[in-house]
Amino acid sequence: MLKKLDPLLHSELRLAIMSLLISVNRADFKYLKEETESTAGNLSVQLTKLEEAGYIIVKKGFKGKMPQTVCSITKKGTEAFEKYVNDLKGYLNL
Amino acid sequence: MLKKLDPLLHSELRLAIMSLLISVNRADFKYLKEETESTAGNLSVQLTKLEEAGYIIVKKGFKGKMPQTVCSITKKGTEAFEKYVNDLKGYLNL
DNA sequence: ATAAAGTAGTTTATAATATAAACCAAAATT
DNA sequence: AATTTTGGTTTATATTATAAACTACTTTAT
Fold it and tell me: How far is A19 from B78, CA to CA, in rounded Å?
């Protein structure tokens, strides 16, 4: 009945990141930091975890002269997110 | 936009406990352990946390000669659960 | 009647996770 | 040219979850 939730997604910040990336497709570090109201350190750590899991792609480049980190969601990430949402529904009586 | 999630409820086991108690109203330790497939130790710890928060009531008694712990959800717990579900919806694109 | 095994938990220790603090390199500002 | 700001990473610490060990008692088998 109650499905085991993907521990990588059952984290407030990582879930927020994925939720944002699902709707906007691409987002840079600054944007994610603002929208999630997280600290840079925490965001950095969680992006790395999502990247290592293959849920997102992280590209480092420059915007003008300033470094810029751009993130996007992968197919695997989208599927994992959708599965998580469905599994979670079992807990929420939706 | 993205609301801060109640950390007490954003835990797989505690959420499962609350979800079960919402639907059945009363449940004993054994039933919760079976349904959640948790270890007794983890369940014990999480029930105490929910009790301390005033989200559930834990009553210790006996069933025949064996000890029995019966749990039920409080009004505060029900309200917290409902708020959590609503806040979470913002993350899930539902 | 007693030893062994099972029930219903709690407590304590350890592993995993999240968060914050400290740091770094370069750019922009004063 | 010193200071502050930007855009991060790394490391340390606090929190949380999980597992292991223990308690107290009951039931069953010998």
Answer: 26
Pairwise CA distance, residues A24 & A12, whole Å: 18
Candidates A5, A12, A22; nearest CB to B12: A5
Label residue B49 by pLDDT band (50, 70, 90): very high
Helix/strand/coil for B60:
strand
CATH number at residue A43: 1.10.10.10
- For strand C, is any atom closer than 7 Å to the CB of A86? no
pTM of the predicted structure, to 2 decimals: 0.93
Q: Is the CB of A69 under 7 A from strand D?
A: yes
Asked whether residue B4 is domain-assigned, the answer is no
Nucleotides of D under 7 A from a protein CB: 6-11, 15-21, 25-27
Domain total for chain B? Answer: 1
